[in-house]
Design brief:
The protein is an alpha+beta fold. The protein contains five helices and nine strands.
Length: about 150
């Protein structure tokens, strides 16, 4: 699978509890733009309404040769395609306090279809984020020392 866009902020701000791959309903110009890496998941979230999941806040910039597209078309709600059972499970888990559903990545699978990695997450506290940064710095230092001594 080829990663087309990633929500790096979500990996830092949340602990991932469960990961699910979902299809997404798109227009033709959106597919072309996404495959050209013109998508941003910054500020994107998953909204549940009437037992359906929608990707909201994701911005897809149209290509130059695309038809005239209004600003609200770029960041419109896009329906996520999942089974009723998966949606019910995610929805029930998201109703627990502290849990939410966020998009992690937009990927292109082997068949060329656009998919969204959706995750059930729990927010991290400030001290957890600091601890994560410390661990990252220590790992970076270890890798530097290994490279320095050719280990």
């Amino acid at each position: 699978m080829k990663v087309l866009a990633s929500n790096k902020k979500a990996y830092f701000d949340f602990d991932i509890l469960e990961n699910v791959v979902a299809g997404i309903s798109l227009y033709g110009w959106e597919v072309k733009s996404i495959k050209a890496n013109r998508i941003s998941l910054n500020g994107a979230y998953i909204k549940v309404s009437s037992n359906e999941l929608f990707l909201d806040g994701a911005s897809i910039t149209p290509l130059k040769f695309s038809p005239a597209v209004s600003r609200n078309e770029e960041s419109r709600q896009r329906k996520l395609l999942m089974t009723k059972k998966q949606i019910a499970l995610l929805n029930a888990s998201a109703k627990q306090p502290g849990n939410t559903i966020v998009p992690l990545e937009v990927v292109e699978n082997e068949k060329g279809l656009i998919k969204v990695n959706v995750a059930l997450v729990r927010g991290r506290k400030k001290f957890d984020k600091r601890q994560k940064l410390k661990e990252k710095d220590v790992q970076k230092q270890i890798n530097f020392e290994r490279k320095k001594y050719n280990i």
